[in-house]
């Protein structure tokens, strides 16, 4: 890949959300904003190899996309469209009042997460419009077909336009009810960055994890007393602290138990632990912890152990027991079984995992977990088959490399 191609790829990762959000604020039309942004990036593909990469790629892309939008409006023959184009060009429109925190992408997230849309649709739309994830990447995150996801996103944008859903921060009274959808969005964006599901050459996308954390900090500043907002921020920080040890020098995924803990980010761990302690104090005062707070506490246990052998697995299992009470999903049951394997042995865990087969057939971590448990029990032939299935479902080169090595070690 040439330097210019790398610059374009990096700009798409870093600037897509900014460009779309800025255009949406100006145009009030998601479709027009997305299409104009796409045209701007297409122009960059043509121009940058000839003219060179501009000093400020984000500003270049935003300006180009804005001009593309004006050109689209001017091609219309209606008088009011021409007047709108003039206002967009010369900036005659009165600015909208600013909220407690003025951030275009945060405003766009709340627009995409409007309660008029189904929760899954809010998440998918925001991943596309703000996170810049492709439809295949979003479909993989939801375990659905690409065509179905494409239709879901298209219908969501049409509904926002038809219902005249405003592009603005919700009022203080509406914020608590709206925040759960935003947290789900940020968590999925973060997870996609922490281990990409698509054929992205980078197995870990720091731009996505950093963006999710940045927006989580903004939401936390807006709602400092919301336990789940605090919990999600802590969870992200503690997970991000392990990023440097996530992939080996050879490009292979390194699982938690095998990571070099000396490479973990002590500053992020300290901040994450502080937030977890903050929520523990609230829980002692009677506040019931939610899903993100419990997940953050689990990660706090892991990051407190200087060596994997020092991990308090009984505490991890106890926390998962709380989580199952809130979210009895098969994915949570699978994660609990992984901890049970360390506490009670792989045979006990395998019984639970096998009971989840019908609901997790297409879920890659299920087959990874089952392969590992079978390997530890000496059932090599069955383990190999499970690794084969996991490799078939893996969409990341680093993880594929790790799984193939583990499979080939079997005798």
UniProtKB/TrEMBL annotation:
Gene3D superfamilies: 1.10.1740.10, Tetratricopeptide repeat domain (1.25.40.10), Winged helix-like DNA-binding domain superfamily/Winged helix DNA-binding domain (1.10.10.10). Residues 178-278 form the DUF6596 domain. InterPro entries: DUF6596 (IPR046531), RNA_pol_sigma70_r2 (IPR007627), RNA_pol_sigma70_r4_t2 (IPR013249), RNA_pol_sigma_r2 (IPR013325), RNA_pol_sigma_r3/r4-like (IPR013324), TPR-like_helical_dom_sf (IPR011990), WH-like_DNA-bd_sf (IPR036388). It holds the Pfam family DUF6596. Keywords: Sigma factor, Transcription, Transcription regulation. Belongs to the sigma-70 factor family. ECF subfamily. This is RNA polymerase ECF family sigma subunit. It comes from Antricoccus suffuscus.
């Amino acid at each position: 890949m040439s330097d210019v191609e790398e610059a374009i790829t990096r700009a798409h990762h870093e600037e897509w959300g900014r460009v779309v959000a800025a255009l949406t604020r100006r145009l009030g039309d998601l479709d027009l904003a997305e299409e104009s942004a796409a045209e701007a990036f297409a122009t960059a593909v043509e121009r940058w190899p000839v003219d060179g990469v501009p000093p400020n790629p984000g500003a270049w892309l935003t300006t180009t996309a804005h001009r593309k939008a004006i050109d689209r409006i001017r091609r219309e023959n209606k008088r009011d469209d021409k007047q709108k184009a003039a206002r967009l060009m010369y900036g005659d429109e009165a600015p909208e009042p600013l909220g407690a925190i003025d951030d275009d992408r945060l405003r766009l997230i709340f627009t995409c997460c409007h309660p008029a849309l189904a929760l899954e649709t809010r998440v998918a739309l925001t991943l596309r419009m703000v996170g810049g994830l492709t439809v295949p990447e979003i479909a993989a995150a939801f375990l659905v077909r690409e065509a179905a996801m494409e239709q879901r996103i298209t219908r969501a944008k049409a509904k926002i336009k038809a219902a005249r859903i405003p592009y603005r921060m919700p009022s203080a009274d509406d914020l608590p009810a709206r925040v759960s959808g935003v947290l789900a969005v940020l968590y999925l964006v973060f997870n996609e960055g922490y281990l990409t599901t698509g054929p992205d050459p980078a197995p870990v996308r720091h731009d996505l994890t950093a963006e999710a954390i940045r927006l989580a900090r903004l939401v936390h500043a807006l709602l400092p007393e919301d336990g789940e907002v605090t919990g999600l921020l802590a969870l992200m920080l503690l997970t991000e602290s392990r990023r440097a040890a996530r992939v080996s020098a050879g490009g292979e995924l390194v699982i938690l138990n095998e990571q070099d803990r000396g490479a973990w980010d002590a500053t992020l761990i300290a901040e994450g632990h502080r937030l977890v302690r903050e929520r523990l104090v609230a829980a002692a005062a009677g506040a019931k912890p939610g899903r993100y707070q419990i997940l953050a506490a689990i990660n706090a246990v892991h990051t407190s152990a200087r060596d994997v052998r020092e991990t308090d697995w009984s505490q991890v299992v106890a926390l998962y027991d709380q989580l199952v009470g809130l979210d009895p999903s098969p994915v949570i049951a699978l994660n609990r079984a992984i901890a049970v394997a360390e506490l009670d042995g792989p045979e006990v865990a395998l019984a639970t995992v096998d009971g989840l087969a019908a609901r997790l057939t297409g879920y890659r971590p299920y087959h990874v977990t089952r392969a590992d448990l079978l390997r530890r029990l000496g059932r090599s032939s069955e383990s190999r088959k499970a690794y084969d299935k996991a490799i078939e479902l893996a969409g990341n080169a680093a993880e594929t490399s790790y799984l193939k090595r583990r499979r080939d070690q079997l005798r």
